[in-house]
Design a protein that fits this description.
single chain, alpha+beta, Aspartate Aminotransferase, domain 1, 4 strands
Length: about 170
């Protein structure tokens, strides 16, 4: 199982996936004398595929992680988060004070605490974080306040979810 800073890659990392990488390179490639040292024999260079030449290459941590762990490990990690989300939905269904808003199709579980207002959600979320139990921020669905789990860390387990739900 991979674990890199809580989710699959460091905060602020991204990935660009192009259907036609040659077209993307033509769109983003920048030429300048001071960049010639980076352009060796048409070698792959991540800065040729995005507009962030003067910023750090945000996709590089993701690329490195993917290269180090491989796609199979990423697939396993993603499957794990979706399994935990399915279990979390079941725990919500079985909780006497909670109502599942939408069946999870990925790793997001949206639910509500019956009878709570926006203020109740805010107070609960603040206390949950202050007590170092979890970080679950209030959200909204169709104008109604709700809670949602965004399970992105493959080390999150069913017990973590149970501990959070026990505070409701």
């Amino acid at each position: 199982m991979i674990h890199i800073n809580g989710s699959f890659a460091p905060f602020d990392a991204c990935a660009l996936i192009y259907r036609n990488p040659k077209l993307a390179k033509r769109a983003h490639l920048q030429k300048a004398a001071y960049l010639e040292t980076l352009d060796e024999d048409d070698e792959w260079n991540p800065s040729d595929y995005a507009i962030h030449l003067t910023r750090r290459a945000r996709g590089l941590p993701f690329w490195f992680s993917l290269a180090a762990h491989g796609t199979d490990e990423y697939a396993k990690a993603m499957e794990r988060t979706m399994d935990v989300a399915k279990d979390a939905a079941e725990q919500v269904r079985n909780h006497p004070n909670l109502k599942l808003v939408i069946e999870p199709s990925l790793s997001i579980v949206a639910f509500e605490r019956v009878g709570w207002s926006s203020d109740d959600y805010e107070k609960w979320s603040d206390k949950l974080l202050a007590d170092q139990i979890g970080f679950v921020t209030p959200s909204a669905h169709k104008g109604k306040p709700i809670l949602r789990f965004a399970i992105v860390n493959p080390w999150t387990n069913e017990g973590d979810i149970a501990a959070i739900l026990a505070t409701l």
